[in-house]
Amino acid sequence: MLDDHEFEQINAIYRQCIEAVQRERAEHERPLANIDLTVAFAPVLAVYNELTGFAETNPNAILHHRTALYGPACDACGRPLRSPTASFCAACGTRKAHG
To answer: Is the dihedral of CA 60, 62, 63, 65 positive or negative?
Structure first.
C-alpha cells in the first residue's frame, strides 16, 4: 500500500507513461493495440517495486494500492476497513466502534 507521498510519486510517473504512449501513437499513427503497455508502463512497476518490495505486474492495479482509499485497521482482525467511512469490517464482520 502507498501513502499519499508515495502515491503522488507513482501517479506522476504513471502520467508520464500515458503521455509517452500518446506521443508514440500520434507520431507514428499507431493504434493502442500495437503498443506494448507492459514496456510502456515498466517505470511505474519498477518504482512501485522499489517502494514496496512487491513485484506488481499490473500498472493499473497500483492506482488502487493507496491507503487513503481505505479506512483504519479493524480493531478485531487488523484488516483495513473498505473505506474511511465504513461502519463494519467486511473481512470479519465486526462493527466499528463509534466514538
So the answer is: positive
